[in-house]
């Protein structure tokens, strides 16, 4: 069974642990290579048996499943960890994901759901319920880009305004942006009109108040 997915099952309840092993080990493509009754033992067994996927209970003695997940993934980042939960507690599952788990399984999940979850994690995917999708997206997504000042201006006009606020004259701006002086003058006229500014000094003050002109 050299091409089988090697599994470590960690749970402090022997009935559940052994029952899950008895469910998965006979299936083609799966091999339960180790079992653990607490988090510390799971870390040791993972080092010794080098499983592909660890099915990890959260609440265990000695070391909890989240800390054990962190230790296992730190040692072997390629290992896929599925945490076991009684429900869909957001805080627990998100903590597990931050520790390096790739998803969760509900205790009592059907056999086909368990098989799909293990196979998905082994293939590099993630597994989580729909109810957590939005929360997980918030955690994993990059921070939203801040809205740029003066959204009524085009990107080019904002670039020119930034240089104006930095104290550049028209000739310097034209040279830096590889534009003609006439193009710069036209853009400045548009900026003044859009911002309803009285003169260049007025627009500089407003631009600096908005955080522009600080590139240097």
UniProtKB/TrEMBL annotation:
Signal peptide: none
Positions of the HTH luxR-type domain: 146-211
Keywords: DNA-binding, Phosphoprotein
Response regulatory domain residues: 6-122
Modified residues (4-aspartylphosphate): 57
InterPro entries per the UniProt record, alphabetical: CheY-like_superfamily, NreC/VraR/RcsB-like_REC, Sig_transdc_resp-reg_C-effctor, Sig_transdc_resp-reg_receiver, Tscrpt_reg_LuxR_C, WalR-like
Protein name per Swiss-Prot or TrEMBL: Response regulator
Originating species: Nocardioides astragali
């Amino acid at each position: 069974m050299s091409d089988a997915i090697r599994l470590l099952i960690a749970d402090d309840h022997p009935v559940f642990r052994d029952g899950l092993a008895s469910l998965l080990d006979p299936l083609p493509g799966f091999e339960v290579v180790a079992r653990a009754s607490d988090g510390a033992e799971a870390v040791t067994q993972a080092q010794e048996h080098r499983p592909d996927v660890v099915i990890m209970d959260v609440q265990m003695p000695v070391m909890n499943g989240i800390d054990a997940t962190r230790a296992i993934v730190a040692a072997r980042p390629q290992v896929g960890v599925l945490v076991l939960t009684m429900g869909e507690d957001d805080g627990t599952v998100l903590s597990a994901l931050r520790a390096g788990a790739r998803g969760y399984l509900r205790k009592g999940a059907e056999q086909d759901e368990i098989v799909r979850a293990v196979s998905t994690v082994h293939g590099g995917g993630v597994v989580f319920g729909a109810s957590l999708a939005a929360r997980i997206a918030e955690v994993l997504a990059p921070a939203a880009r801040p809205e740029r000042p003066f959204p009524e201006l085009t990107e080019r006009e904002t670039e020119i305004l930034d240089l104006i606020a930095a104290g550049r004259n028209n000739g310097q701006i034209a040279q830096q942006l590889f534009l003609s002086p006439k193009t710069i003058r036209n853009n400045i006229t548009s900026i003044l009109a859009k911002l309803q500014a009285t003169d260049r000094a007025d627009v500089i003050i407003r631009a600096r108040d908005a955080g522009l002109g600080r590139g240097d």
